[in-house]
Records
---
Amino acid sequence: MSMQRHKWHEPNPDKVRDVVNATSSEPAQYLAEYFDAMEKGRDFAASKEIAEEFKSKTKEYVWERKEGEERKPYINPYRLNMLGYEVNKKLHDMKQARATEIRQAYGEKKYNEKLDKAKEYHKARKTSYRSMADDDGMSMSD
């Protein structure tokens, strides 16, 4: 019995994927956008300028010492470990903003549907409604 192995890492040439473009060269924002694109199954692209700025800013960021802290033995004095935290925070904020937009759009859609339904209901009632004055011949036009 032979097992057929799938190559999951190869992209499907028939499937066109959306592309998320980098908007910032700040290390935390750039990486948050990258992880967001990967999580959604989209491709990620950055212009050469943004990519070069990202590389230089990341190098500066990684080797920058933490401000306001005294040197402690056996603790990394650089900010590399803070990058992951900041990326996670920005990614979480992006997801929350997107979820809020989706909830608001859904709420507006449902509200408009109810409003349209109510208008149709009242319009139907007005056309089928006859006043008592018309029945008794007591209209003002007589």
---
Amino acid sequence: MKNTALFYMNYTAPYPGNFLASMMMLVKSLQAKNIKSHFIFPVSAQNCSWVPELTGAGITVSFIPEGSKEKFRFFREVFRDKSILFLHLHFTDSMAERLLIKLAMLLCRNRRPIVVHYHNHYSYHANALKRAVKKASMHGDYLLGCSAGVAESLKNENLSNDIAFIENAIAFERLDSSRNGYGQRNFLQFGFDYERKGVDISLEAFKLLREKYDDLTLSISLSSNRKYVEDKITEKLGEIPAFIKLLPPTENIAAYYDEAAAFLSPSREEGFCYSAVEAAYCKCPVIASDISGQNGINVRGIIWCKSESPSDLADKIDGFLRLTEEEKSGLGSRLKEAALKHYDLSRWVTQIIAYYEERKLLN
């Protein structure tokens, strides 16, 4: 009897975050249909504090070793299990891994549908041969984007696959917000990926802003890559100046939003910006780059800036600072209302289950 949903997730963050909260709710919905879940993570996640919570919820958890031979042996063992309904991939678009998975399925005579969940825009090889091989490795897979912009990037490649999107949602119960006013002079940004998140753009913007406001600070939350980000800031500014604060990762992310005048997301690439919606829920104003995957967020009140433009980001921050306390408070209230209306997690789970059912993946 096929009754196991298999998920392979390249997720190693030190905290469970919104992603695993989403997956846990999906697991409960599958359990209601008598479907078990098996989660696979990289071996580097083995000691993460959130693993016991998953196993305690009745989820089978495995860790894939490093190395191609080791991965292939691992997948062969996994696909000996004839109860698997489908494989759903998150945060991995490795051509090599996909070929290993399909070979293991073939040798185990257990070919199962594969759903590849894209959390960022589709990237392709400039080399024509590698590009063709990658497309071939994707043959027959279901491709699911986390936003309309991500799905569009897949369709633009003229792929013959079934392509759809289900917009991400937020586990609002994680966010215990207690904002007290809008007098803060500190701005928040996430920066584990220095280039993609546009940390350098914020640094340039703050150099301009501090000529006018010498009390402004920029807090950069880092879930990983701290040494790399420190080196890049030092390379750009000669040091890590006092107005920049590097924050450790935290599961109590609402506290960071509450302490910020506004949240900044001058990213160069976003599949779907979880943090912008989280900030909105916490009534924290959002200033974000007008890019695909981010500008599709259905939250009225986000302040948009031009991509790759430190001067425009500085102008938008300056304009925000000139708002009255009442105007900022009204903006925050509208943001939370919109976030709640469009991004409740139960909507995402319902749509994911419907997606599986429409493609007969639960049979």
---
Amino acid sequence: MKKTLMLLLLTLVCACSPMKRGVENGKVVSSSQPALTLYARDLPLLSAGRYTPLKYMGASHVVPKTVVAVYGTDASSPMAVTIFAETPNDQLEWDALSFSYWDSPVSDGIIVDGNVFGGRLYALKGDRDPFVSLVEKDAEKASSLIWLVQRYALVTNFEKIKIILEYREPLPAWCFGLVEIPEWKPEIRAFQERAKKTLVAAFSYSSLGEYSDAEAQGIDGRRLGVFLGSLSYRNIFISRN
């Protein structure tokens, strides 16, 4: 009887515990729906926290609820980004990766705890980068930077949640001017392997220390809204009898 009561009390405590979506010990975390831990291995934290970017949809705008962590040191060194993004309401959904400009074309992928992240390799200019001011304060120099980026993304939880992992390095000189980055070259394959080793995702959560839901600093909210990818209104069919 006592054991049954203890189990019931434990269930009630877990059910009443507030949902956590923020940063713990430099890692993006969600305690449920889904439980999640995201971080970059062996890179120092530059900025982390909640953020509500502006995302334009026609003549109006919406504000997805995001948690962001950015890792790196300076503009000549590798960077990484981990993002948990939630739609602002139940009427909106994240588009499939194949319909989102920032996530397509999907050329490879990774599997994390049975979840398939679509991968995209691309070059990103500093004048479109939401995080560039964290590594380069001079606006002219920042806009001229170009990154080689490996992006992985997943849309889940009935299209309400989007998870983004990115690894970056300065674009190699031999890639300048190329229309398409040749993924088959050994140098690019090695870059992609570094991305997979650096980016860490787990569909689980356990308390990692001090929790924070403070706002991330040094991020361009307008660019971040574009960077997240596209949203659409849900198709809701109402039958009339």
---
Amino acid sequence: MKKLFFLCLLALSATVSMAQTKYLLRFRPVVGETVKYANSLSTSMTLPDGGSMQVNVNTGLDSRCLSVEKGLSQMEYTFTNMTGTISAKGTNIDFPKEATDKMIGKRVVVKMDSLGKAVGDVNASDFQELAGWGVSLKDFNSVAGAIFPSYAVGLGDTWEAEVTTNGMKLLATFKIVEVLDKALRIEGKANLKDIEQEVEGAKIKLSGTMRSQFITDIATGMVRPGTMSMGAELYMTMPDVKEPMKMVMIMK
């Protein structure tokens, strides 16, 4: 009984210690190190005619730190794989291989500050194909998963930061939900309300909620491969369409 009591006391002490520990999170990747990511994004949406459509995209991305100067990390992101399928009305259509193959090997170079936010212009001179896929280069404003606060944070702490996704500026809330071995599990949430976007000349409005979860390495501020997940439930209002279109996105 005494041994059990002692073990419980140790466990309680460790839990209290983790809750009290604060971490000054910073984006500080290792120069020359390549981190490989693989993601799948599934998007399902209702159509104005009452039907539905689903788009599945699988991508591979290599992240490499080229240099660090004056607190800025020059990061290179290279697509290593891309496949996709569109499903609607019982028909599946694969993304044209000749189009997806053009993406492989293309790179984006961007400077990141110590809080994990892009600084200055994005160098994507050999990556113009992105424009044809509805992807904004502004999405590279944070590839650290979260934009870190200027102060130290610990288990249960929250902070807010402005993030950009597909050209939309959003105020996101981040929270440390678990302390792991040399890493932290972080959750993020952002609410959208009548965010205006322009798609192929038509103005639309987006409302809904976006959530994310990932594990960040304490030493480097990098997201650990295979730990990022994201979910979003959005409602899209279009001109001349009475009912908003519902869109559900899941990324793993």
